[in-house]
Write a structure and sequence with these properties.
Oligomer: single chain
Strand order of the largest sheet: 1-3-2
Helix content: 55-70%
Distance between the termini: 67 Å
Order of helices and strands: HEHHEEHHH
CATH topology: Multidrug-efflux Transporter Regulator, Chain: A, Domain 2
């Protein structure tokens, strides 16, 4: 593959499968069907269609990385990942060492603190 193609704005589904290291364990072929399945499941995955081929931009590739990380590395369910990505805290850094559970715990505690502050304000106001 030449350098200019590697650096192009859009990647093909095969290139994305290679980036995500999605391969069939039995024969080593790229598992592009996984990406197509995730397209149907997650509204964050929006490829461009040109001449019948799928092309993915950096934002979509990053979303695919998050999805793969949460499903494959963290063992979350499809519904769990959907809820997390649809929440306000969808800026999950797949390279971050903080676990998803810790982020959810912190988010829950912050909500409780906000509610306590609101109650205090209402009682003093």
């Amino acid at each position: 593959m030449n350098k200019s193609k590697e650096n192009s704005k859009y990647k093909t589904i095969g290139e994305v499968a290679r980036i995500l290291k999605l391969t069939n364990i039995k024969n080593g072929s790229l598992s592009t069907h996984t990406i197509r399945f995730w397209e149907k499941e997650f509204k964050q995955i929006k490829p461009k269609f040109l001449t019948g081929r799928r092309y993915y931009d950096d934002k979509t590739i990053n979303n695919l990385k998050k999805i793969k990380y949460l499903l494959k590395d963290k063992g979350m369910t499809l519904n769990g990942v959907k809820k997390l990505l649809n929440s306000q805290d969808s800026d999950i850094d797949v390279l971050d060492n903080t676990t998803i559970k810790q982020k959810i715990f912190i988010k829950t505690k912050l909500k409780k603190i906000k509610n306590i502050l609101k109650t205090i304000k209402e009682n003093n106001g």
